[in-house]
What does this fold into?
Amino acid sequence: MKILHASFECYPLAKVGGLADVVGSLPKFQNEISATSKVIMPYYNNDFFKNRSKTVDLYTGTIKIDKLSYEYSIKELKSNEINFDVLIVYIEDLLDRDNVYGYGDEVIQYIAFQLSILNWLVNENIDFDIIHCHDHHTSLIPFFVKYCYEFQKLKNIHTVLTIHNAQYQGIFPHNRIDLLPEFNQENIGILDWYNSINPLATGIKCASRVTTVSSTYLEELKEKANGLEGLLRSEEGKCKGILNGIDTSVWNPYTDVMIIKNYKISNVISGKKANKQKLCNTYAFDKDLPLFGFIGRLVGEKAADLLPKAIEQALDENRINILILGSGHKEIEDQLIELKEKYKGRFSAYIGYDEKLSRLIYAGVDFLLMPSRVEPCGLNQMYALRYGTIPIVRRTGGLKDTVIDIGDGGFGICHDQASVWDICYSIKRAITFYNDKKFFRSIQKRIMKIDNSWNTSAKKYIEVYKSIQ
Ligand code: ADP
Ligand code: GLC
It folds into this structure.
């Protein structure tokens, strides 16, 4: 079975969040079972493409978007950092940007990427059984292959759409319909959702199968999905929640070159201690106090707006240290920077993206905070577990599916509301837990054994593909 994953992110080539981690690991595990999976993604003007890889040209073609022609090329990536095939779509001045997202012409970027893939498949007679689309950036592909005249040769190809995050739907107004290639106008209604063109809704309607990145998230989406709840309910027969896995060879405290001391279950206590010591030296924290971390986008979905208040309250009431790594809303960033001054030696924040620091945090903190309002799957909690760090999570989406509270015989700390009170209460519970050294250490060892690898989930995707054939 030949699968083509179409995505805007793929680790380590270009990463903004968990989408990259999933697309950068799932194909590897599918290739170990009964599939040949490749990834196709845009070329970016970043360090990986410029300095850590080479590309070989495979094909050059032209696509048209609203009377403008764009020349694109399909390239094959050559890199010893990747162990599955990656194809690249290069379009000068459109896709060769420094960053993955954040450009005014993103609607054209997404359409151009999708059209280039399909144009190439048609012109070169390339045969895949499934195009697996990830998020709204690629979710018009199922519509294009079904209804656009120029792609009729592909109309028997099956499509799977994975929703990593339904908050973002790629919506644009009807007056930009000319951006799309010619299609059978009888199907114009399929593009519409609440009087706009909605690529994610279109993908849900047209894909052969739709998956979400955890089972609980699928159930939640049927109730609340930024306007898509009714659609997900009516399409539920073809929807399935499949929990993400993690790449346990990339995320392994025993081999991770980005941390100070490597460790496995047998020496987790001394291993974590050395990594914590490094963080405490860097931020002038007291190494004997419990250390709490947060890694992620500073946005409402992650409940990052609650962090400044929660941090203040938790630091005023308890003897603890807190470290934040992330970037996002300027207002939250500014509040965190202010708190850094106020609580020097007890709190610090690094505003930005830093993979090395993130690994050190997973390895060095005692607890990882994830109070998310919405968390389709969440990978951080699984990385934390792998590194012997206790997750403190709100019971939502994938967090609910992967973390069991210590009070229920589990290994994490869970709360129900995204509120300052819940975060602070959970921190107090964590401190009590931390002080019960014997129990705490036994849980650190226990969580490192939890299997969140792709072994089960990669097979579930293959079952989904097979169910379409
Ligand atoms: P999301 O994709 O919603 O941001 P996930 O939990 O699925 O959330 O994945 C987040 C991924 O991004 C993890 O690999 C996490 O370690 C990483 N990450 C998030 N913020 C940062 C940051 N500021 N620096 C380094 N890595 C980060
Ligand atoms: C999205 C979600 C996150 C999930 C990731 C990978 O970014 O916000 O919860 O883990 O995709 O599927």
Remarks:
- The chain has a mean pLDDT of 97.
- The two ends are 10 Å apart (CA to CA).
- Residues 17-19, 22, 164-165, 213, 244, 375-379, 398 surround alpha-D-glucopyranose (ligand 2) (CB under 6 Å).
